[in-house]
Amino acid sequence: MLDKKLDEKLIDGKIIYTIAYEEEDYPTAVDITKYIETNYKEHFDEYSYVVNLVAFSDLSCDINTTVIYALNSDGGINKVANIAKRNGIISFAYDINNLKNGLLFSLALEKTTVLYLNKENLYTENIDFVDSLLQMVNFID
Question: Fewer CB atoms < 10 Å away: N or C end of the chain?
């Protein structure tokens, strides 16, 4: 919601939030979906949303999504990063170590909640964040 171009990324007026997972992490993906639905009550801010669960093996470049949240994967992280970069999709990593593979954000629960942004992978063509976001994140090179 802090992307100035978010309205251009809506699909049928909604945020499509895709969670990419390996088969063994399907229960985790379901738990995250339940958490989102319980805490956000059908809206991220003023935008309605849909959560889609997609196995890494089923991801393709023509995915129709606003955001991709990638759980851990041996080979799927690079695939998600490439799709996100190519299509200007905001990407989140479950594990901060996956930022080095090209994903954009990772959220860590430390003493406080910390949002990490991989400065090197900040795709400037299709994503333009508001200045306040850039003041809140911890940049990683």
Answer: C
- Would you call 1 helix, strand, or coil by DSSP? coil
| In the chain, alpha helices (H) | 6-9, 26-40, 76-87, 131-136
Residue 59 gets which letter from DSSP?
-
Distance of alpha carbon 129 from the chain centroid: 14
CA 115 to chain CA mean position, Å: 12
Q: Which CATH class is domain 6-140?
A: alpha beta
Supply 51's token pair: 């959560």
Distance CA 32, CA 51 (A): 10
CA distance 134 to 115: 10
How far apart are alpha carbons 52 and 90 in whole angstroms?
15
**Interatomic CA distance for residues 110 and 84, integer angstroms:** 27
Question: What is the pLDDT confidence band of residue 128, given thresholds at 50, 70 and 90?
Answer: low
Which residue is associated with the tokens 């080095």? 100
The percent of residues above 90 in pLDDT, for the chain, comes to 39
Instruction: At 53, give phi and psi (nearest 5°).
Output: -105, 125
CA dihedral in degrees (75, 15, 116, 77; nearest 10)? 0
